[in-house]
Design a protein that fits this description.
The protein has 81 residues and is mostly helical. The protein has one domain (6-77). It is globular and about 40 Å long. The protein is 52% helix and 11% strand. Strand 2 and strand 3 (55-58) form a beta hairpin. The chain contains three helices and three strands; from the N terminus they run H-E-H-E-E-H. The protein has helices spanning 6-17, 35-46, 60-77, and strands at 27-28, 50-52, 55-58.
């Protein structure tokens, strides 16, 4: 069975922090951020999803993955009737 591990969850949460309204806006993870966010940013950079190890902009791959993350997040927030 496949599950999201802690690292994947941290990465998804970081992707959700990127501005959705404009691809011209990025994200900067400062040195005083939590280790969780700093490590997640470095992993996303290594995977080619963001342009800088401390944030930057989403790459094409990052945009695709972030869109899926937004959809998953929204679906999980939905209330059942």
């Amino acid at each position: 069975m496949s599950t999201f591990d802690k690292y994947m969850t941290d990465e998804l949460n970081l992707l959700l922090m990127f501005p959705r309204s404009s691809l011209m806006q990025g994200l900067k993870i400062h040195r005083d951020a939590g280790e969780t966010q700093i490590s997640a940013a470095q992993r996303l950079y290594s995977k080619g999803m963001i342009t800088q190890p401390d944030g930057g902009y989403l790459t094409d791959l990052g945009i695709d993955v972030a869109e899926h993350a937004y959809k998953i997040h929204g679906a999980l927030l939905s209330k059942l009737n």
